[in-house]
Amino acid sequence: MNEQTNSGRPRPAATGFDFTESKVMVVGGTSGVGLATALGFARSGARQLVLVGRNEQRGKQAVEAVAEANPACEPEFLSADVNEPVRADEVVAQAAARMGGLDVLVNSTVAVYQPTLLHDTDIEAIPAMLTQQALGPILTSRAAVRVMREQRHGAIINIASDAAKVPTPGECIIGAAMAAIVTFSRTLAVEAKRYGVRVNTITPSLIANTGSYDRAMNLEFSRKIFEKITAQAHLGLTEPEDLANTILFLASSLAANITGQVVSVNGGISVA
User: Fold this and answer.
1) Residue 163: CA atoms inside 13 Å, Cβ hemisphere, count?
2) Nearest C-alpha neighbor of 163 from the set 34, 269, 246
3) Regions of the chain with pLDDT less than 70
C-alpha cells in the first residue's frame, strides 16, 4: 500500500519483513510513531504484540486497528506509566509472560513539552521534563535485557530525536533528555552484545501528524524556528510511517550485525 507524504512523494509501506514468530512490545504504541510501528509489525506477520500506554481508550482503539491490519494477530494492551520503576519492570515481565518471551522492544514515549528558551522555562518543571522523556526507555530497556539475555537474542529500538545532536533554541532541556537516551542506548549496546542483544536509536526531527508537531507549531516562537527547519526537509517532512519502516528494518534479521547506532530519519533537515 502506498501513502502520500505532505510533499507529495510516494512512500511504500514496509514489505519483505517476516515477524510471524516474533514477540513484540511497543511502549507508547497507542498513537503516533508507536502506533504506526505496531501496525507495521502486524502487517509484517506479527501475531504476538503487546502495546503499552497510559490511556485506556486509546489503547482499545489501537488494539482494534492492529487486529484489523492482521486478523491473525492477537494484540494486547497493558496500561502503565513506565516512568515508574516498579511499574516499568512489571509491565515488561507481564508482556514477556503473556507472549512466552520478548524478541523486540520499541520505546516510543514522548514527554509533553513545548520548545521554550531556558531562561523562560519554569525551574520547577525541569526535573520532570528530563525524567518524563528519558527515564521510561532506560527502565524498560533494563527490564527487557534481563529477559533477552536468557534467550541469547533480542532487539531494542529507542526513539530519541535530533535534539540530542543538533543544538536548537528552545530545546536545552529536551535536548539533554534526548542525549541521555542516545548515550544510554549506545552504552547498553556494548554491554548487551555478548548476549546477542542489539540496541539502536532512531533520532527524527519534526514528525508530521503527531502531537509533538502540533505543540511545536502552536507557539509563535517555536513555529518560526521550526518553519525554517522544515524548509530544509527537501526529501519531505518525516511522518510516523517513515520511522516505522526504519524500526522494522532494525528489528529484522537484515540488521543482524547492526548495534549501537544512532540513525537520523529527518528528510534531510540535518546530517549530524
Assistant:
1) 22
2) 269
3) 1-16, 208-219, 221-226, 228-229, 231, 233-234, 272
Q: What is the reported pLDDT for 45?
A: 96
Q: Which helix (H) or strand (E) holds 185?
A: helix 172-192
* DSSP element (H, E) containing 113: none
DSSP structural state of residue 71: T
Q: Rounded to an integer, what distance in angstroms lies between the CA atom of residue 75 and that of residue 89?
A: 20
**C-alpha of 134 from chain center:** 12
Pairing of strands 23-27, 48-53: parallel
CB 27 within 8 A of CB 55: no
Domains of the chain: 19-265 (3.40.50.720)
SS3 175: helix
pLDDT of residue 270: 74
Q: Going by C-beta distance under 8 Å and a sequence separation of 6 or more, which residues neighbour residue 163?
A: 171, 174, 175, 178, 179
Contact 192, 199 (CB under 8 A): yes
